[in-house]
Design a protein that fits this description.
Layout (H helix, E strand, L loop, with lengths): L2 H4 L1 E6 L4 H15 L4 E6 L2 H9 L5 E4 L1 H11 L4 E6 L7 E6 L14 E4 L5 H13 L4 H4 L1 E4 L12 H11 L5 E5 H9 L3 H4 L1 E6 L7 E4 L5 H13 L5 H10 L4 E2 L7 H10 L7 H5 L14 E3 L5
Parallel strand pairs: 1-2, 1-3, 6-7, 6-8, 7-12
Antiparallel strand pairs: 3-10, 4-10, 4-11, 5-8, 5-9
Helix pairs in contact: 2-11, 3-4
Length: 303
């Protein structure tokens, strides 16, 4: 088999310039590890899902939202090749102003709940899903203040979550949803508005990003690439910076059970139908992004 035939192509979304730094280092690593890899960057996850389904790339570095959308399009289980240690125990949180936390999320009925981009699993879809399981149908009972500032990247940029925090601190919302990893980072960075807030609620844990391949990917090639991924070592000086930039200290095998809640939310909401290629080319909001909610309002945002 020639090197060209052996090459694995991975697709990722260029949500930040550091993605190039990460994948240039990863490409060199996989070559040295005997699993030659090249990467293709896309502007949004809808394009990436199309690329995996269409065979343009063999593996997609997907958010949980993109993974579920891909499987719903595929009509069967895709192959999960790995995820970050961070992705194996993700959670969403609700924050409030200090002294205004609640003991029961049902106390939010009739109040303003800020959400991140509506295609974000961690800052919109799953918070609403878990709140509903705990007795609060926030889409009907709350005034939703949405910040759709990073549609297509499924919340990767963190911009919509920052606006959620600012809205709560500024009194434009009574509570706000974001990922627990983002909340921890904002506090660690000493963001002044984060100091004005407190944690009021944490969701059950779930899985976030993963490397997704179609079942048709040759098993030997998939296993060789996965073995190289799982062997990537944060103690290797050449890999520490790119792994830190990717937010990973150790790669883990995929855990399908961690997507059950998002799959249930997708089924309930009917998310993930085929997106016409001409619509993708124009970067219009995805079916996930076009969800409407009763009594929702859009945050006052700047692109």
């Amino acid at each position: 088999m020639s090197r060209e035939d052996d090459l694995i192509t991975v697709g990722a979304v260029a949500y930040h310039p550091r993605v190039v730094t990460i994948w240039e280092a990863f490409r060199a690593y996989f070559a040295d590890a005997g699993a030659p890899t090249d990467y293709v960057l896309y502007s949004n996850y809808e394009r990436l899902v199309e690329a995996v389904l269409g065979g343009e790339v063999e593996i997609g570095w997907n958010t949980n939202t993109a993974f579920v959308a891909l499987e719903r399009r595929l009509g069967r289980e895709a192959r999960i090749l790995g995820m970050r240690d961070l992705d194996a125990s993700f959670a969403s949180v609700l924050v409030t102003r200090r002294g205004e936390a609640f003991a029961d999320p049902r106390e939010l009925a009739g109040r303003r709940l800020a959400l991140g981009s509506r295609d974000s699993g961690h800052a919109a879809i799953l918070p609403l899903h878990y709140l509903r399981e705990q007795g609060l149908d926030a889409a009907a009972a709350c005034e939703l203040v949405r910040f759709d500032t990073d549609l297509g990247t499924h919340g990767d940029t963190g911009d919509s979550e920052l606006r959620v925090v600012e809205a709560v601190a500024g009194g434009r919302a009574d509570a706000g949803a974001l990922g627990d990893a983002t909340w921890a980072r904002l506090r660690a960075e000493g963001l002044p508005v984060a100091a004005e807030l407190e944690l009021a609620w944490r969701s059950p844990t779930y899985c976030h990003c993963n490397f997704t391949a179609l079942p048709s990917l040759d098993a030997a090639r998939a296993q060789r690439w996965q073995a190289a991924l799982l062997a990537m070592d944060h103690d290797d000086p050449a890999m520490r910076q790119p792994m830190d930039l990717e937010g990973v200290r150790r790669w883990l095998p995929g855990d399908r059970d961690g997507y059950a809640s998002l799959i249930a939310a997708a089924e309930r909401l009917g998310l993930g139908p085929r997106v016409p290629s001409e619509e993708l080319a124009q970067r219009k909001p995805s079916p996930w992004a076009r969800l409407s909610r009763a009594r929702s309002s859009t945050g006052d945002v700047a692109r």
